[in-house]
Write a structure and sequence with these properties.
Elements lengths: L11 H24 L1 H7 L1 H7 L2 H7 L9
Length: about 70
Amino acid sequence: MCESAQIYSIPPELVLARLQQAQALTDFWVTVWSANPRLACQAGRRVEEFMLSRHEVQRRHAHDLENGG
């Protein structure tokens, strides 16, 4: 490690603020996609799966890691 290298930490208040911002954005997009499922489909598979229940996503991907897939 260089002598001039320093370790920085993120203040807990900033972490909390960023988490709240991320949650607000998530809530916004869920509202938009719920109101317009067609838009969610246009956004792609990840968005589509984001809107599904956890159980349904797990069911869809239950065999993804089998046979190197």
